[in-house]
Amino acid sequence: AAELGDEVSMNYRGTLDDGHCFDEGKNFKFTLGNKDVIKGWDEGILGMKKGGRRTLVVPPKLGYGAKGSKPDIPPHATLHFDVTLVKI
Which residues belong to any copy of the PPIase FKBP-type domain (predicted)? Predict the structure, then answer.
């Protein structure tokens, strides 16, 4: 299972509450707990196993907060990610 400090590779699709897809990718690599990604990902992917799938619902405080992320993520946005852990 994925633990802090592990490098993971993810397939993902990110959408807003209205279903608008703001980002998607395959084999996106990062290290859990290194603040390479939003906090909602660091927390939501912990414990996943290779091949595992999850839907992460990330509140603004664990995402991009009051600033958002231009141009696609407005301030105070709740983010939805369908993620698959490809590799640990």
Answer: 5-88
DSSP state of 32: T
pTM given for the model: 0.93
48 part of a folded domain: yes
| Residue 88 is among the residues annotated as catalytic for this protein | no
Domain that residue 81 falls in? 7-87
User: CA–CA separation, 41 vs 35, rounded Å?
Assistant: 9
Residues in the chain: 88
Q: Which residues, other chains included, contact 37 with Cβ-Cβ below 8 Å and sequence gap of 6+?
A: 30
Structural domain count of the chain: 1
The residue from 42, 45, 64, 73 that is catalytic is 64
User: What pLDDT, in 10s, does the model give residues 46-83?
Assistant: 999 999 999 999 999 999 999 999 999 999 999 999 99
Per the residue annotation, which of 6, 23, 28, 30 is the catalytic one? 23
